[in-house]
Amino acid sequence: MATVDIAEAKSSAQNCGCRVELLENSDGVKEGIFKANGKNRDCCKGIYEDFDRATDLNNGSTQVKKSDLIVSFGEMLIDFIPTVSGVSLAVAPAFKKAPGGAPANVAVGIARLGGHSAFIGKVGDDEFGHMLAGILRENDVYDKGILFDSHARTALAFVTLRSDGEREFLFYRNPSADMLLTEAEIDKDLIQQARIFHFGSISLISEPCRSAHLAALKMAKEAGALLSYDPNLRLPLWPSPDESRKGIFSIWDKADLIKVSEDEVTFLTGGGDHEKDEVVMSLMHPGLKLLLVTVGEKGCRYYTKDFRGRVNGFAVNTVDTTGAGDAYVGAFLTELVKDMSLLEDEKRLRKALIFANGAAAITTTEKGAIPALPDRAAVMSLLNKARAS
């Protein structure tokens, strides 16, 4: 990408309604993003070509270049969150709807932080589905890969909030539109543009989505993308715990980067002590570049073939942990896509993980996943306050 005179670009863009926004990266460096008002961007073509993302302000669509595109594959749904914490679903007096679904959360989290993301998945051709598609567009997520199904509804999840912000889920999705994505419907061109391809395990539960998922993985790998995997264990959605473990491990050795929680470590190792490094290391496979373990408010642990360690979290007033792991993943991938070599440099890796922990912490301070995902300014503010204290 060319060096851009931001002041000159901003001045030129303002003449026709286009604009340039400045975002601060984790190193405190200002980066520019160009947003176009003209559908063809002809008015500011020269400026646009010096930037790696352009958003059409007329219709909300976003076009990206391959250099740092992160494509997220999987489900998008509606979370219904109790207006009162610490009560069961039966006792909750009312619920607030919020967009969610781990892969979609990651895509929005990346875009909120100034990264370039796209989403591939299917929702119902209903009001909820069109609302979710609109939310992707509003957040500058490239939505060319989202499809609508007229034969199944958008998935719903009712979330129980315990007094400590932890959750339990009740799903309505059998079948739901996300389960019906087929291999023929996958946007192959979009996958081939990805620098990083991110996915979970829920799309592995049933056909035809399982075959679509496996085909998408193959396409991404052949195109040279780094494969990022967050299993996002949801036992109620699987036929049995054994089927869940088998399904999650069925693509384990294809991933270059894996993120799991402490509870998932225990589950996947058959009851192993997640505090023990040797237990976590048993989940490594020969081609894995990085294994991340999130430990809630305590931060995270990281493991590579050359080094391992722990990065502390941030103390915040936790209201709802929904989406915290997705915020963490999105923030880390946003930093990683800028410089893949940080996987081999522990100092720079730790810096990116501090940024990811900050994004996750902020997300827990508000109810819902996507509504709570922070922008870069919020994360940098938290990090700066922590440095000053």
UniProtKB/TrEMBL annotation:
Q: GO cellular component annotations, sorted alphabetically?
A: cytosol
EC numbers: 2.7.1.4
Kindly list the biological process annotations in GO that this record carries: fructose metabolic process
The cross-references to InterPro entries, in alphabetical order and at most eight, read: Carboh/pur_kinase_PfkB_CS, PfkB_Carbo_kinase, PfkB_dom, Ribo/fructo_kinase, Ribokinase-like
Q: What UniProt keywords apply to this chain's record, in alphabetical order?
A: ATP-binding, Carbohydrate metabolism, Kinase, Nucleotide-binding, Transferase
One Pfam family matching this protein: PfkB
Asked if the keyword Secreted belongs to this entry, the reply reads: no
Domain (Carbohydrate kinase PfkB): give its ranges. 69-375
Can you state which reaction this protein catalyses? D-fructose + ATP = D-fructose 6-phosphate + ADP + H(+)
| GO molecular function per UniProt | ATP binding; fructokinase activity
Q: Has UniProt tagged this entry with the keyword ATP-binding?
A: yes
Pathway assignment reads:
Glycan biosynthesis; starch biosynthesis
Taxonomy, superkingdom:
Eukaryota
The similarity comment for this entry is: Belongs to the carbohydrate kinase PfkB family.
Q: State what protein this is by name.
A: fructokinase
